[in-house]
Amino acid sequence: MSSKGGIPTGFNLGNRWIQLLLAIICMGLVANVQYSWTLFVRPIHETTGWSELSIQVAFTLFIMAETWLVPLEGMLVDRFGPRPVIAGGALLIMIAWVLNAYTSSLYMLYLDSLLAGTGAGCVYGTCVGIALKWFPDRRGFAGGLAAAGFGVGAALTIIPIANEITLSGYQHAFLKFGLLLGGAVFLVSMLMIKPVKSDRVAKSARNVQGKRDYTTVQMMKTPVFWVSYLIFTAMSAGGLIATAQIASIARDFGIASIPMSIFQTVIPLLTLTLSIDNLVNGLTRPLCGLLSDRFGRENTMFFVFLGEGLALLGIIKFGHNPYLFLIFAPLIYLCWGEIYAISSAMIGDTYGSRNATANAGALFTTKGFAALIVPFGSLLREITGTWDAVFVFCSIIAVLSAIASRFVLAPMRRNFIITSNAEYDANPPVDSRETSHAASPISGATISAR
């Protein structure tokens, strides 16, 4: 495929738009390894007798494995390319969900969740990371499109999974969709190739880009990284609680099974809500990524983080009304789903493209730490008999994160990049690989498939 003006005009695996499309497809196929979990919790509880609190520990382990191993997986991608890492992740997902279909032990469920989380992390971290490398001039938009697959894909498959659980049981759903989705990702991964370095740069003056390529270890020695880490850990917590508990919350409110009519089809409120949730969760990523490319990373974060705080309060205040639940639950996803699209672009802007997959993966581990709060949410619900305390706390954290991102992180990161660029210009590195790669445009380049 040739690429004129950045838009694909034919078919060639070396074109960056084709590679981005493949990344989006992979993300969509693995999305419900995470987002459908809320549908399995109650059926597993009713079948096995395990408490919902103990079952939700499996979700926490999944998120920990999905996120904490991404830096290591990113290093493998930076070295060997996306194909082997995504293929390996697909196999792990297949194995985990097939095992889930036959699991009779709570501890085996935990092990399966670790395998599934590792597989999902391989796919997620790789797809977002290579989007940053293929599109250094549109990091927010490209990273957002890749991450969008994770939300939109969930919206497309959540209803079939819900129907399969209802008609055939959760075990059959694990078996069927584990083989289908994992197998499809494995096949798509065979078409993915390693990006080449580009000399394209962002056009917006609001997103200053660093010239130096930092390793992950070097990045982790900078204060900017740790301020970012704290903010994204805090923001991730509220969204993960909603992701894991939205079905339980709807059932506790007594509205989960209320029939809702849409396009002459009647479906339960919870199923409709989850479909809308995942759709907006996907759409917000390229939208906010595009806005952050235009108006700045932290400026965009400020407004969407404030929106998250209001949405978390809204679902507690008004969520007992089924129609308002249909508004505020998706708003939580709308204002949360974009955080790792923006954060990945921000890491690429600040620390360079060469190690972007591993570096973005290091910040993605914040999701793992935030996952530790999910069982605490269930525990607090059992103690208080209400979700109010949990969501009010998360709302306060979201508002504080909005303020910190705009008035602490933004000036801190800009000053860091300006200083780093000045040092780079004063003492440019002698690196033949960097020099040769920087001169090679992506379009029309000859790329070895890895």
CATH superfamily: MFS general substrate transporter like domains
* DSSP helix fraction: over 70%
Radius of gyration: 21 Å
Please give the CATH architecture: Up-down Bundle
Question: How many β-strands, per DSSP?
Answer: 4
With strands numbered from the N-terminus, the spatial order across the biggest sheet is 1-2
User: How much of the sequence is in beta strands?
Assistant: under 5%
Which class best fits the helix and strand makeup? mainly alpha
> Which fold name fills CATH's third level, the topology?
Growth Hormone, Chain: A
Protein name: Oxalate/formate MFS antiporter
Keywords: Membrane, Transmembrane, Transmembrane helix
GO molecular function, one term: oxalate transmembrane transporter activity
GO cellular component, one term: membrane
Textual characterization of the structure:
Residues 16-413 form the Major facilitator superfamily (MFS) profile domain. It holds the Pfam family MFS_1. This is Oxalate/formate MFS antiporter. The protein has 450 residues and is an all-alpha fold. It has a single domain, classed as MFS general substrate transporter like domains (Growth Hormone, Chain: A, Up-down Bundle), CATH 1.20.1250.20. It is built from 20 helices and four strands. It has helices spanning 16-30, 32-35, 37-48, 52-68, 70-80, 82-102, 106-134, 139-168, 170-189, 216-219, 223-252, 269-295, 297-318, 322-334, 339-351, 356-364, 366-371, 373-384, 388-426, 432-438, and strands spanning 3-4, 7-8, 259-262, 265-268. A two-stranded antiparallel ribbon has the order 1-2. Strands 3-4 form a two-stranded antiparallel sheet. A hairpin with a 2-residue loop joins β3 (259-262) and β4 (265-268). α13 (297-318) packs antiparallel against α14. It is globular. Residues 1-9 and 432-450 have low confidence and may be disordered.
